[in-house]
Write a structure and sequence with these properties.
heterodimer, A: 219 residues, Rossmann fold, three-stranded mixed β-sheet, 6 helices, globular, B: 254 residues, alpha/beta, eight-stranded parallel β-barrel
Chain lengths: 219, 254
């Protein structure tokens, strides 16, 4: 199974790459749409500014191909800003549009707590999720962000598998069939983060197998 | 469920080796940065800071290589800096594998640097390091590794730094640094209650009680120390259990 890491200048790509290498995953960097064709699964790492991310993806001609792969159920994991990119827009860059997989809008965290929300926090589980299998209930994950998808912003029928709270409840883990996203950085979250990435690899394996089986049946 | 306070070991390096000193002088060798990083990552540190305290341009490539070696050992966040003066130098630090870049002297000389870094990499990647020394009723900010006084009030400078783009303050008490007399809780609280971003307290750590004090009285979001960890005087597990038992939110499991 080959996993594409979308390359657009995100600072955390090398750490995601290293974390996956420790798990024995076969990854490659995908700086252009053509590279996505070979991918059994796609990871969009992200850190920084929503507008910068969407503009970078736009300049590389990646927006339509990414949207198309995600809709065709190629297993996808968005990390931090990569999760936010799944939404239709963000208050961080109101003039830019997101991938629009989820109809909601990313908003600023309420300034009642210190921002950025920076450090290790726990999750509030809402739905069973393969991504969180074997992850202890009280596990901590590393967050570093000021914007987030607030609770119930993914839209009806989309599983907000876990929330986190920092001045207000926001989406920490989304798992919607093959479409996954996490607001924290699993690549910086010690053993709990490694377990989550391992779970994604397993999820991707089983999703891509069932995609292939369906493809054969359709022929 | 709440945000855990962080325990952060710091590696002061001469570019390639970890060094130790008292109040910024009398340096001696304290080990290999990558080896220490691997140990702290394994033992439960929440984050790591690596600084180039010599920070001469000649050996910058050596320090970048050190960051690469350290980052390869970590599954926790890494901040790095020392002598960073431009956007390009900051970018090199992040490209080498750091998640955040710390700036100090250059930000005082040219505060727009903070804005430039935040615009490019996001505020969460920009740490403003402030070296502060007691001066009358307040604290004065120092630059060049504590060698040179500025005319800036440390608390006001922290506030301005945040307005200009810093996403975190690394606050070192020069009066306490290397003394093992405990953190300067008064300084830490003054900054933490003024700024809207997390504050990392540094300088003077010795006992678990010192950490408890800086979280409770100093309102610190994170506490940083070097020699007590390098010399094995304090272990992360025991320290974090001590704090957790006293009600400080801590990530106790690795």
């Amino acid at each position: 199974m080959k996993i594409a890491l979308v390359e657009y200048g995100a600072g955390n790509l090398p750490s995601v790459e290293r974390a996956l290498a420790r798990l024995g995953a076969d990854t490659f960097r995908a700086p252009a749409p053509e590279a996505l064709a070979d991918a059994d699964a796609i990871i969009l790492p992200g850190v920084g500014h929503f507008g910068a991310l969407m503009r970078q993806l736009g300049e590389r001609g990646m927006i339509v191909p990414l949207r198309e792969r995600i809709s065709r159920r190629v297993p996808f994991l968005g990390i931090c800003l990569g999760l936010q990119a799944l939404f239709s827009a963000s208050d961080e860059a109101p003039e830019d549009t997101g991938l629009g997989i989820f109809p909601g809008r990313v908003a600023a965290l309420p300034p009642t707590a210190k921002l950025p929300h920076m450090g290790w926090n726990q999750l509030e589980r809402r739905e069973p999720a393969r991504l969180l299998e074997g992850v202890p209930q009280d596990a901590y994950f590393y967050f570093a962000h000021s914007f987030a998808a607030l609770q119930n912003s993914t839209g009806p029928g989309h599983a907000e598998a876990a929330l986190c709270d920092h001045g207000g409840r926001f989406v920490a883990v989304v798992e919607n069939g093959s479409i996954c996203g996490v607001q924290f950085h699993p690549e910086k979250s010690g053993q709990a983060g490694a377990r989550l990435l391992e779970n994604f690899l397993r999820l991707a394996q089983s999703e891509s197998q069932s995609n292939r089986a369906e493809g054969r049946a359709a022929q | 469920m709440s945000l855990a306070r962080r325990i952060i070991p710091c590696l002061d390096t001469d570019g390639s080796r970890v060094v130790k000193g008292v109040q910024f002088i009398h340096l001696r060798d304290a080990g290999d940065p990558a080896e220490l990083a691997a140990r702290y990552n394994r033992e439960g540190a929440d984050e790591l800071v690596v600084l180039d305290i010599a920070a001469s341009r000649d050996h910058r490539p050596t320090f970048l290589e050190t960051i690469r070696r350290v980052a390869a050992e970590l599954a926790i966040p890494l901040s790095a800096g020392g002598g960073i003066g431009t956007l390009e130098e900051g970018q090199a630090i992040l490209r080498a594998g750091a998640d955040k870049v710390t700036v100090n002297t250059a930000a005082i000389r040219r505060p727009a640097l903070l804005t430039e870094l935040a615009a490019e990499f996001g505020a969460q990647a920009v740490v403003l390091a402030i070296d502060a020394r007691r001066d009358g009723a307040g604290w004065r900010a120092y630059v060049r590794g504590g060698h040179e006084a500025t005319d800036l009030d440390a608390v006001k400078w922290a506030q301005e730094g945040v307005e200009r783009g810093a996403g975190e303050i690394l606050l070192t008490s020069m009066d306490r640094d290397g003394t093992r007399k405990g953190f300067d809780c008064e300084l830490t609280a003054a900054v933490s209650e003024t700024v809207s971003v997390p504050v990392i307290a540094s300088g003077g750590a010795d006992t678990p009680q010192d950490f408890l004090d800086v979280f409770e009285k100093g309102k610190a979001d994170a506490a940083l120390a070097a020699s007590i960890f390098h010399d094995n005087l304090q272990g992360f597990g025991a320290l974090k259990r001590f704090l957790a038992e006293r009600g400080v939110p801590m990530r106790v499991s690795a």
